[in-house]
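Title: Request for sanity check on Phosphoadenylyl-sulfate reductase prediction

Description:
We are preparing a figure and want to confirm that the structure record we downloaded matches what your pipeline produces today. Could someone re-run it with the sequence below and paste the raw structure tokens into this thread? We only need the token string, no images.
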Amino acid sequence: MASAPQGVLDLPKPLQLPLNASDLSKINTHLSSLSPQEILQWGTEYLPNLYQTTAFGLTGLVAIDMLSKITKSPPPLIFLDTLYHFPETYELVEEVKERYGLPVHVFKPEGCESVQDFERIHGDRYWETNEADYDFSVKVEPARRAYEQFNVQSVITGRRASQGGARASLQPLEVDVTGLLKLNPLFAWNFALVEWYIKENNVPRNKLLDQGYRSVGDWHSTSKVEEGQDERAGRWAGKEKTECGLHEDYFKMKAQAKAKAATPESATSLAVNA
């Protein structure tokens, strides 16, 4: 493992929160020169109350496999079930649970166990009628509920700089507006390296990847990718959107959702769908 600059070695295990900007900068300077496995090893030693939030995309699966070889007690998994995942994604969740023997904590939209429950509350095709609040309802709020329930202070993500958009300037470690630490162990890998690792290590993968998909989310916002297109071109195709809300400003999204819930139109919609 690459040697750490003076200062990183002086940090406590686990890190004491909140993390100041100076320490964050030192840590990122150190982590930037390490392999994904070394970053994950560092994370298991330094990050407090560490979990992995995953939608079982390729990068997340690589991290799961690497962790299984690094430690006998990998961070537990949090899966945000939007209720609109492909059947192949749900099959993959079960395959990963069987392969690695990991606990998977599933969180769904508040008050919902099924698509019918969700549409009774929000109406049909809510991702079209209110895309921002849809993201908050199916991803952001369930994530915060999970973090509060398990006192999560740090999470492992599957984001990479090569995915572009808001991720282009990604660092190994980030602190979001809530103070949550986000470790991005494969931040410097491209899609080819991720695919190579998956094949070399026989890691379970989504069957849709053999059908022209490269990044898989909800069925209504995921499409196949043409040869030569960016790997995330099939997510929210035709829109400027590049993130689902999980890595955006939580407090801003919460305020928008609260404002939406207070509108007369929202109250009428709830009454109609009750």
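Thanks, this matches our download. Residues 62 and 198 are 7 Å apart (CA to CA).
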